[in-house]
Amino acid sequence: MVTEQSVDIRGRRQRWLEAGAGWPVVLLHAFPLSADMWRPQLERIPDGWRFIAPDLLGFGPVQDLSSSSGGRITMEDYARGVGDFLDGLEIDTAIIGGLSMGGYVTFAMFRLAPERFTGAILADTRAEADTAEGRAGRAKMRDVLAERGAAAIADQMVPKLLSEGARRDQPDLVAWVRRTIEAQPAAALEGALAAMMGRPDSRADLRRMKVPTLVIVGEADEITPPEVATEMQQRLTRAQLVTIPGAGHLSNLEAPDAFSRALDDFLLAHI
Ligand code: MLT
Fold first, then answer.
1. Does residue 262 have its Cβ closer than 6 Å to ligand 1?
2. Position in ligand 1 atom list of the atom nearest CA 130
3. 223 lines ligand 1 (CB under 6 A)
4. Residue ranges of E strands in 65-112
5. I need a labelling partner for 54 at 20 to 30 A (CA). Which of 2, 26, 36, 247 fits?
6. 101 lines ligand 1 (CB under 6 A)
């Protein structure tokens, strides 16, 4: 059973979803979504594991950016937020991972506290920083957000987040992704755009990540395509790469069974 809980941490309300009991696996969400994107994985949790999916700072239904540094958020702020949350749950070590921006936060967490990691999951993400072109695109998106709000971000992001096949064949998923984007506070979206623009190159961290790592990617991911995942796997020392046939960037939502199977196999085989 998936439970939704919240707690006050350093003056802000932290919401998270959780299921199962046993060794902890922390799952960090993508931009511009919330912890709810992990529900399909939390609903079919393998025996002996506890999956925990927190909202990143400012995202989700509990909205408070007061603890962020002057409105300007960095990946390290998100990482510290997750670290404080895990401390609150008295979880010292875990398998930690995320999808896309959740992966960027995973790298930031690794830089801050590598000793927390017993394994890592890097799904549909990349280690490189933004290119100049990427940063310019995010600056434009920030303007669009200021002028037209989260619905306009959904217009731009849905075609990139979901494959053509999913947009054609999974109308409920398309509607869910759009609704979830529109429900995010503008301050959270703005903060995340700044954090992603400013994030450092994490490729050196890949060499230092010696824990078992699952690299997972949708075959039709256009934001972080399979070649990016292959390159990450090659830089890591103990990584396994799984490609999810036909899935786009939100591979865990487009192909939840295949994604969860890959996760189960990784947890069983490598930990
Ligand atoms: C995400 O899915 O988290 C974002 O698309 C990542 C990005 O824009 O770099």
1. no
2. 9
3. yes
4. 94-99
5. 247
6. yes
Instruction: Give the amino acid at 130.
Output: D
Neighbours of 210 (CB within 10 A): 11
In the chain, pLDDT over 90 holds for what percent of residues?
A: 93
Give the pairing of strands 12-20 and 3-9. Answer: antiparallel
What's the rounded Cα separation, in Å, for the pair 198 and 48?
Answer: 38
Q: In this structure, which amino acid lies at residue 230?
A: T
Predicted pLDDT at 2: 97
Q: Are 37 and 24 in contact (CB under 8 A)?
A: no
pTM over 0.85: yes
Asked whether 207 and 233 are in contact (CB, 8 A), the reply is no
Q: What is the largest CA-CA distance in the chain?
A: 49
Return the DSSP state at 125.
-
Residue 136: partners with Cβ closer than 8 Å, 6 or more residues away: none
Cβ neighbours of residue 190 under 8 Å, at least 6 residues apart? 142, 145, 146
d(CA 30, CA 203): 19
Domain ranges of the chain: 3-128+201-270
Question: Mapping DSSP to helix (H, G, I), strand (E, B) and coil, where does residue 157 land?
Answer: helix
How far apart CA 124 and CA 224 sit, in angstroms, is: 6
H or E segment at 189?
A: helix 186-198
Q: Which of 100, 162, 249 gets mutated to test ligand 1 (max ligand atoms within 8 A of its CB)?
A: 100
The whole-number pLDDT of residue 67 equals 46
CA 202 to CA 206: how far, in whole Å?
7
